[in-house]
Amino acid sequence: MRYRIPLAGNPSTDVALRSKYIAAFGSACYMSEANTFDCFYQDWKAACADAVKIGDVSGNAPYDKGYTCQPVGNGDYTLQVGPDVANKITINFQAAPLQTSLIEIKGGPTEVSSPYRNLVEVTTIEPDKGFYCTSGQVGADGMPLDQRKWILEVNREAHGGKIHSDLAGFTWPCEDENCKPTTCTEKLVLKDPKGTPENDPDRAQVHHVVPRKDLRGCPWGTNAYKNAAVISRRLNRFLFNKVPPEKEVLQINKVPPYTP
């Protein structure tokens, strides 16, 4: 349940207007799986503070300032935005829809399609679910493999027993040993989780390209194979709970599918 502010214009189809709202109101605003764009807030005071700016951000007539939100009694609030007491908007307290898993790239919604996209799904696919459900596969030791272990095994088989990063060459801002800003580059060959300490920065990990939770802490990315990527722990920590950068999605989608 979140507080929804009534946006002016039609940002669901107007990319330029949508960008203005995102720039002004940040992570509160997003496209839903129903292809609607809205801004939802956990705190009604934050919703009211941004609601008064809607006129300015949309390019329409600015709303009058100086008024405060008034409770309706059912969880909603109203905000007067003009000199006439009847000139007001309603901030609805309602269920916020799931954010779309399509990532906006150059104004177009793009599906994440990692190199594991052809692996057969045998478990329930849900938002906010880890890669720990059964894969339907059995390892060399005769033990069942969960999705994570199967993804790593497919990667090993594709590279002669070594684990390769699906984002090799990816660069991102980081700090050196002296805490000075520098640029990190993802290595091609990663350390196998077998026998490697969990805190080793070059240890291979299975990463949700679309994070399990969105920026509001709500369920988002699923455990579908197409949403999985093998990367280093170091890079995984950088990408954790971020909206996938355009260059990440573009690079991961170019990797040819693995065939186990």
Low-pLDDT segments, ≥5 res: none
Please tally the helical runs, counting DSSP H or I stretches of 4 or more residues: 6
Mean pLDDT: 93
Sheet with the most strands: spatial strand order = 2-3-1-6-5-4
Shape, per Cα inertia axes: elongated
Q: Sheet bearing the most strands, described?
A: 6 strands, antiparallel
What order do the SSEs take from the amino end to the carboxyl end, as H and E?
A: EHEEHHEEEEEEEHEEEEEEHH
The structure class reads alpha+beta
> How many domains, as an integer?
2
- Total number of beta strands: 16
Helical proportion?
A: 10-25%
Oligomeric form? single chain
SS strand fraction: 15-25%
Radius of gyration over C-alpha positions, nearest whole angstrom: 22 Å
Give the distance, in angstroms, between the N- and C-terminal Cα atoms.
Answer: 42 Å
Overview of this protein structure:
- This protein has 260 residues and is α+β, with helices and mostly antiparallel strands.
- The chain has two domains: 2-94, no CATH class; 103-254, no CATH class.
- The chain is built from six helices and 16 strands.
- The strands form six sheets. A six-stranded antiparallel beta sheet has the order 2-3-1-6-5-4.
- The relative contact order is 0.15.
List the helices and strands and how they pair.
Layout: E1 2-5, H1 15-25, E2 29-31, E3 37-41, H2 44-51, H3 54-58, E4 70-71, E5 77-80, E6 88-94, E7 103-105, E8 108-110, E9 134-138, E10 144-146, H4 147-158, E11 163-164, E12 171-175, E13 181-185, E14 189-190, E15 204-208, E16 228-232, H5 233-239, H6 246-254
Antiparallel strand pairs: 1-3, 1-6, 2-3, 4-5, 5-6, 7-8, 9-10, 11-14, 12-13, 15-16
